[in-house]
Amino acid sequence: MNGLILSGGQSSRMGREKRLIQYHGKTQEAYLFELLGKFCEKVFVSLNANQHSDYPYIYDAYHEMNSPLVGILSAFQHEPEQAWLVVACDMPFVTHETIQYLIEARDISQKATAFQNPDELFPEPLITIYEPSIFSDLLQAYQQGRKSAMRVLSQQPIKLIQAPNPQMLKSINTPAEYEEAIRK
């Protein structure tokens, strides 16, 4: 299984690249790279064409759409036979325990293993293990102009698990959310 740090978004609400924000005494990119490296064969940062990283990276191959789906598809295009443990760069409360819990719950007979979003009750696509068998479903959604990885997950046989601590799934997208997060 490979790890993928989703970082190719525009960060327009935050006003700066979320992967470069520090929460743990280092950039979120560095924190997640080290964290996923404890569990995955290889780890990559998903980037758009305007970004660069000192870590191994995969550029978004599908430029027509601005969606996390693009990063996931690009990872599968890079190594289609690998499962991908995907984590968004704007989730600072993801810990070793979060990843270990997800991996221990993994069911390779399903197309993915995902946490259920505690607020919306849908699969949380931004911290999920995607099995190789879901690649064609993701690609078909993209080709049909559908950009929601969550909707693809909702329509597939996946293992849905409850987060032991819902806070671990929290995304930080604005300066106000960042200020609140660093106070915790």
TrEMBL record:
It is found in: Cytoplasm. GO terms for molecular function: transferase activity. Pfam families: NTP_transf_3 (PF12804). It is an enzyme of class 2 (transferase). Keywords: Cytoplasm, GTP-binding, Magnesium, Metal-binding, Molybdenum cofactor biosynthesis, Nucleotide-binding, Transferase. Its cofactor is Mg(2+). SUPFAM superfamilies: Nucleotide-diphospho-sugar transferases (SSF53448). It catalyses: Mo-molybdopterin + GTP + H(+) = Mo-molybdopterin guanine dinucleotide + diphosphate. Its main location: cytoplasm. Residues 3-155 form the MobA-like NTP transferase domain. Its EC number is 2.7.7.77. GTP binds at L6, S7, G8, K18, D60, D90. PANTHER family: MOLYBDENUM COFACTOR GUANYLYLTRANSFERASE. Transfers a GMP moiety from GTP to Mo-molybdopterin (Mo-MPT) cofactor (Moco or molybdenum cofactor) to form Mo-molybdopterin guanine dinucleotide (Mo-MGD) cofactor. This is Probable molybdenum cofactor guanylyltransferase.
